[in-house]
Design brief:
Layout lengths: L1 E7 L12 E5 L4 E9 L2 E9 L4 E3 L12 E5 L4 E9 L2 E9 L4 E3 L12 E5 L4 E5 L12 E4 L4 E3 L12 E5 L4 E16 L9 E16 L4 E5 L10 E4 L4 E7 L3 E8 L4 E3 L12 E5 L4 E8 L4 E12 L3
Antiparallel strand pairs: 1-24, 2-3, 3-4, 4-5, 6-7, 7-8, 8-9, 10-11, 11-12, 12-13, 14-15, 15-16, 16-17, 18-19, 19-20, 20-21, 22-23, 23-24
């Protein structure tokens, strides 16, 4: 018998940051991390994790950004990056990493956005993108796919518009799983007075979601409304058997771990990384471990690396 446990790895590596893009390169057997937001500002560095060490690679490629999305196209053996935010500029560029260098691809496709997510659907052999929001905090509910040459918009019927959700592809069941996220609603506040007259300012409220959806390659289906508490900016990945979810932000910063078996969410354990969001989380299929890096807590940017894997239980 065994059970999944988190183990902390080394702290030497990328600068503490949040909202970096991460994906696992199955061919080269390493985790790839790009960019993110650190205390000094935005980053455009590329790092790889081999299970023991972080190594920084070239800085030539996409501009500095955060809240971008990465996915590994296992058919074409490329990491695909789309969008993100740099200050007040929201981006809509597509890049690919071949293990050695970055190459800019299409400039047409989904509109500029941040807080979207992507995963690779091995059944249709395309990277799937859903949602995100623009520079006006308007959320999207659109689905797109990338075949290595061009983006194609898929159906719009499915999850409500949102950002900061997560996708993971269940390769056993042939489904892309979506959980949670957030929407933003604006409202006007009158900050004027009797002497100055009305003066309206726009304020925003976040609403967190906890619905679960699945995409079968052609349509979305809502499959659950129970499970983890409403949240966004969590980590999520498929470990070969189930979808795993960690942390995020909702009514608080979370540090819980859950799994989705296609029908039910089950909480696993709370012992491991401290509460945080938004950390990078991917599954290293070669070593059989989920890898988590960084994020932010209530007090600081984080730069720690953790792995979740099955440990034998004592007799």
């Amino acid at each position: 018998m065994s059970k999944p446990l988190w183990t902390q790895k080394e702290d030497i590596g990328p600068t503490a940051r949040m909202n970096a893009g991460m994906a696992y390169d199955v061919i080269r057997r390493r985790v790839v991390l790009f960019g993110g937001q650190a205390a000094p500002g935005l980053l455009n560095d590329t790092w790889v994790w081999n299970g023991e060490l972080w190594t920084q690679l070239e800085d030539i490629g996409p501009s500095a950004r955060a809240a971008n999305a990465l996915a590994f196209d296992s058919t074409r053996e490329r990491i695909v990056l789309f969008g993100g935010v740099a200050g007040s500029t929201v981006l809509a560029d597509t890049w690919e990493w071949d293990g050695t260098e970055w190459t800019q691809m299409a400039d047409t496709g989904p509109s500029s956005r941040q807080g979207h997510d992507m995963t690779f659907d091995s059944k249709i052999k395309r990277v799937v993108l859903f949602g995100g929001m623009n520079q006006n905090n308007q959320a999207f509910g659109d689905t797109w796919s990338w075949d290595g040459t061009e983006w194609t918009q898929e159906q719009d019927t499915g999850p409500s518009a949102r950002a900061n959700h997560k996708l993971a592809y269940d390769a056993v069941r042939g489904r892309t799983v979506l959980f949670g996220g957030s929407t933003i609603q604006s409202y006007q506040v009158d900050t004027g007075s009797f002497w100055t007259g009305h003066h309206y300012e726009t304020h925003y409220s976040y609403y967190f979601l906890n619905d679960t959806w699945e995409w079968d390659g052609s349509q979305w289906s809502r499959v659950a409304d129970t499970g983890p508490a409403p949240r966004g900016r969590h980590g999520m990945g498929f470990d070969g058997t189930r979808v795993l979810l960690f942390g995020g932000q909702g009514s608080a910063y979370f540090g819980d771990t859950w799994d989705w078996d296609g029908k039910h969410w089950t909480q696993l354990q709370d012992i491991g990384p401290g509460p945080r969001a938004p950390a990078g989380m991917v599954y290293d299929s070669d070593r059989g471990r989920s890898v988590l890096f960084g994020g932010v807590s209530q007090n600081a940017y984080l730069g720690d690396t953790w792995e979740l894997y099955e440990h034998p239980e004592p007799d």
